[in-house]
Design goal:
- This protein is of the alpha/beta class.
- The protein has helices spanning 14-23, 71-80, 103-108, 110-120, 142-159, 236-241, 261-267, and strands at 2-6, 28-34, 58-61, 64-67, 90-97, 125-131, 171-177, 184-186, 194-198, 204-208, 245-250.
- The chain has one domain (2-188, 228-250): Stationary-phase Survival Protein Sure Homolog, Chain: A (3-Layer(aba) Sandwich).
- The protein is globular, with a radius of gyration of 20 Å.
């Protein structure tokens, strides 16, 4: 199996290093990752931005390529441009510094955005994020991500010969604790988000990504103690509160739903008769 490895924290981040070191002895891994931190850019692409030119710089790196662009740019380069592009079987994005859980974060995360870009380009993907139960964000540098890298390796080994991507599943959103765990939970993302618009010298936003349990500062909790029994057992939030590996199977957005019959009937009356 040939893997394309990317992330949003940048090519020099400890999370990507740990994942590369654990995956490369077992599979062919080509890294195409941002040259600098691109956290929180979602699935944005440089060619769709009004603030930067559509040209990007691609530099050689000992593990592959560094791209002066977003995670989605990196995936496009990896699947449509580099010599190895036609050989890629799976895109792995991460490991992110901090969990990516909840429906809102899925659209905000560059780590998950890279996986969605891969899915739209026809290649399955796994987005990997690491968390620390005590501090939320792993804080011990390279050592924090060693268990996360090892768990990523084991998860891919378990899934390699399965049909996980043969049906409606396009990518997996995976959250792994920095401490070893024996438990994997198959989960669904929970909608749990709120924001405030605050007037002052400048108008600012105070987003709360864990709105059920309001927090101060950047909208993320400091550690996960005290969150027990707050969230439904099926949710990605409950899994990381319980120190589990959360695996969320997802399809590419946007999901299509059938409208109520009265909506269809109302729209069938268009155009309205002019009185």
């Amino acid at each position: 199996m040939r893997l394309l490895l990317t992330n949003d924290d940048g090519i020099h981040s400890p999370g990507l290093t740990a994942v590369y070191e654990h995956l490369s002895p077992h599979w062919d891994v080509t890294v195409v990752a941002p040259a600098s931190d691109q956290s929180g850019v979602g699935r944005s692409r440089s060619d769709l931005s009004y603030e930067r030119a559509d040209a990007i710089e691609i530099s050689d790196h000992e593990w592959g390529y560094a791209v002066d662009g977003t995670p989605a740019d990196c995936v496009a380069v990896g699947l449509r441009h580099i010599p190895e592009a036609d050989e890629i079987d799976l895109v792995v994005s991460g490991a992110n510094n901090g969990p990516n859980v909840g429906s809102y974060i899925l659209g905000h995360s560059g780590t998950v955005g890279a996986a969605v870009e891969a899915a739209f380009l026809g290649t399955p993907a796994v987005a990997v994020s690491g968390y620390d139960h005590e501090t939320y964000f792993p804080e011990d540098g390279d050592s924090s991500f060693d268990a996360i890298g090892a768990a990523t390796r084991d998860l891919l080994a378990l899934l390699e010969d399965t049909a996980v991507f043969d049906g409606d599943v396009d990518y997996l959103n995976v959250n792994i604790p920095a401490a070893e765990t024996d438990t994997i939970a198959v989960t669904k993302p929970l909608a749990d988000y709120d924001t405030r618009v605050v007037d002052g010298e400048r108008t600012t936003f105070e987003s709360n990504y864990w709105a059920t349990h309001p927090v101060e500062g950047d909208g993320f909790p400091i550690g996960l103690d005290g969150y027990e029994d707050e969230y439904p057992a099926w949710s990605d939030r409950a899994a990381i509160v319980d120190r589990e590996i959360s695996v969320t199977p997802l399809g590419t957005p946007q999901s299509v739903v059938d409208p109520p019959s009265d909506v269809v009937a109302a729209l069938d009356r268009y155009p309205l008769e002019k009185s």
